[in-house]
């Protein structure tokens, strides 16, 4: 409903996720059909130190942060945010962490020309966010939250013709949640995303959607688009939520996209094909090795043979080689990981050996039950 550039209405989107939401994950999510992609939260204090550079080799815009020069890395800087405008134009929402309107405006002006929308994180319950008054702490300081949003809308969003949005959690009661929503809707934001869990709820707990009809009605009256977040796992669920709440309602996915960034497709890739595609983007866009390794360790099943190879790898080149050897069905050098590692092979395990794309695409939950041994991030934002 925003008339400023990107429109969030009814969209199916990749959630902001620290470490996970870097360029390769975003590109894979877009390829699979995500309409919009959020970058990972970056705080205002860091953004104001960014040095913008145009990377001609990669055709990316890089925002660098200074760090000490080392023998291993004499550049003295590290890429804190990278965007490939040819792929992300019109689809990239940058998420900022802030508790200070002046700093928020200053930081927003540094990145606004290279992004399509700016989102404020008012939902993260982690200590590093709330102790500084950011993230979910803003839910308890609505005056401050609304001042930040109003100033960003007036001083950055309007002059630059870019939408400002906010992501919140529900509060303990319907009344307090709706009161906060009322206030936010008056700030001029273009979109409201609600993570349907309270600040104290863990991601494994079912979201509470009881207040949604009331929030949605308020958003429609204010001509502000609305995105549901929390516990959504598939394209079908996105369609079901639209059936239930209206076709103008969007859905945002985090954890299920961390596990498989192609979850936006009606038929997601098999985990191995998704991992290979991810690795290709990581190589193409020179993603930081530690980040590539981390993301793969979150998406490759712990039981798969290749998982051990990934966790033991020591360089970009090594990871690229491992991923080259991985078949799209999870096999390495012709042996399926399912066969090797799973005593209780799934009934469809035999089919997996055929290295058949169609079968890959038909497995909508390829990671089910296979990542138990990896510590899942539970209560992040
Ligand atoms: C690994 C990870 C990192 C996250 N980082 C952020 C973040 O930077 N900003 C934010 O607003 N939420 C963050 N979240 C929360 C998600 O955006 C989302 O609100 C939450 O996981 C609920 O959605 P889900 O049930 O689809 O996972 C993160 C979640 C995960 C799993």
UniProtKB/TrEMBL annotation:
DUS-like FMN-binding domain sequence ranges: 36-312
Keywords: Flavoprotein, FMN, mRNA processing, NAD, Nucleotide-binding, Oxidoreductase, tRNA processing
UniProt xrefs under InterPro entries: Aldolase_TIM, DUS-like_FMN-bd, DUS_fam, tRNA-DUS-like, tRNA_hU_synthase_CS
Active-site residues from the entry: 124
UniProt key word DNA-binding: no
Pfam families registered for this protein in UniProt: Dus
Enzyme Commission number(s) of this protein: 1.3.1.-
A GO-annotated cellular component: cytoplasm
Job of this protein: Catalyzes the synthesis of dihydrouridine, a modified base found in the D-loop of most tRNAs.
Family: Belongs to the dus family.
Name of the protein described by the UniProt record: tRNA-dihydrouridine synthase
Source organism (scientific name): Saccharomycopsis crataegensis
Record lineage: Eukaryota, Fungi, Dikarya, Ascomycota, Saccharomycotina
């Amino acid at each position: 409903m925003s008339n400023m550039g990107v429109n969030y209405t009814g969209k199916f989107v990749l959630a902001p996720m620290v470490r996970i939401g870097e360029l390769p994950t975003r590109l894979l999510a877009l390829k699979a059909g995500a309409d919009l992609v959020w970058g990972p939260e970056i705080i205002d204090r860091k953004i104001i130190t960014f040095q913008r550079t145009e990377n001609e080799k990669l055709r990316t815009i890089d925002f660098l942060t200074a760090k000490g020069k080392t023998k291993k890395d004499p550049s003295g800087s590290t890429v804190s945010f990278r965007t490939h405008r040819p792929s992300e134009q019109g689809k990239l929402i940058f998420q900022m962490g802030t508790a200070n309107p002046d700093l928020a405006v200053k930081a927003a002006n540094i990145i606004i020309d290279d992004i399509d929308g700016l989102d404020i994180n008012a939902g993260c319950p982690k200590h590093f966010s709330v102790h500084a008054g950011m993230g979910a702490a803003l839910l308890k300081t609505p005056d401050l939250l609304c001042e930040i949003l109003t100033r960003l809308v007036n001083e950055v969003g309007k002059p630059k013709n870019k939408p400002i949005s906010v992501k919140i959690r529900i509060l303990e009661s319907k009344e307090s949640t709706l009161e906060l929503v009322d206030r936010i809707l008056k700030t001029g934001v273009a979109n409201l995303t609600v993570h349907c869990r309270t600040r104290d709820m863990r991601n494994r707990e079912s979201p509470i959607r009881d207040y949604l009809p009331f929030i949605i009605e308020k958003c429609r009256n204010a001509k502000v688009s609305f995105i549901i977040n929390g516990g959504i796992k598939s394209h079908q669920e996105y369609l079901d939520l639209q059936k239930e709440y209206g076709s103008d309602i969007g859905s945002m996915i985090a954890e299920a996209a961390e596990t498989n960034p192609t979850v936006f497709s009606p038929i997601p890739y098999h985990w191995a094909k998704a991992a290979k595609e991810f690795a290709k983007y990581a190589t193409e866009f020179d993603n930081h090795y530690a980040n590539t390794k981390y993301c793969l360790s979150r998406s490759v099943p712990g039981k798969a043979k290749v998982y051990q190879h990934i966790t033991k790898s020591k360089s970009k080149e090594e990871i690229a080689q491992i991923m080259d050897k991985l078949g799209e069905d999870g096999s390495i050098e012709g042996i399926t990981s399912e066969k090797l590692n799973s005593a209780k092979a799934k009934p469809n395990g035999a089919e997996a050996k055929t290295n058949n794309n169609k079968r890959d695409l038909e497995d909508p939950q390829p990671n089910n039950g296979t990542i138990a041994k990896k510590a899942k991030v539970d209560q992040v934002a």
